[in-house]
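ingest -> validate -> predict -> emit
validate: passed (alphabet ok, no gaps, 295 aa)
predict: started
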Amino acid sequence: MNKNNSNLTWFITGLTEAEGCFNINIYKTKAGKKTAKLRFSIAVMENDLELLKLVKDCFNCGTISESRTNGMRYFTVSKISDINNIIIPHFQSYLLRGTKLLDFEDWVLAANIIITKSHLTEEGIEKLQLLFDGMNRKRNKLENFLPDHCNKNSSLFIPINGNYISGFIAGDGSINIHPFSLTFDSLKFCSIFLSITQHKNNLFLMNEIKDFFNVNNKLKIQSNNSVQLLIENKEFFRSTLIPFFNKYPLHGIKLINLNKIIKILELINKYGINRSNSYTSDIRKEIINIWFAET
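emit:
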């Protein structure tokens, strides 16, 4: 790993928790024999390419590619020596906290099978298939999943790291303004929010993040088995979120939205706007122009 980017280590773990994948690929060679290879990847939208370049530079390995079908961008590491010497040691030092940790642990077992050349045997392929069949979306009933290092009553407990949360938000968070609130006649003008959404299997992780920010907002369980933390509060941005990102820097496309919101809040403070007075049409226009300005 590039030591010049050591401050990004926890950030990358958080980003991986949100957008990463540990994959086992079992396939047949041209000779018809089954074999296998591993792949670690992080996927982002095409406008977040710079985020993947940051990850690649930090790991100093892997490739970046573009999907031919959906425009997504992928950072991928498939070289077994890089997986063994860089990727696995990283996540053994900077631990995942959600259910993706289980995928990583199975993936490490798979790596050992491949490193020892056992995947060249029928027995080895069978073991890899069993691991593959239980990974990623095939897992279920994990609502109470709690790793020892996330359990405050365990001697192995490690407090959640702010850079991890920053990376997690860079992947699965939304720092935004409700579109309906950016009109000249909106009664709730400029409604900014932070939203983080995960599968309900990561309910404990979501509570960890909520507790880290010390907010009373209740987590919302959605009908699609997801859980959402939604904070719609300008004062939260001023007193908590912006200072948080000053300490634990955000990277990627969501940093653009954050910087626009910072400018808008500075403007609101400049004009002394609060709940008891309204936005003039000129101020509304100025805020709308800031938000929709191209970067």
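The two ends are 31 Å apart (CA to CA).
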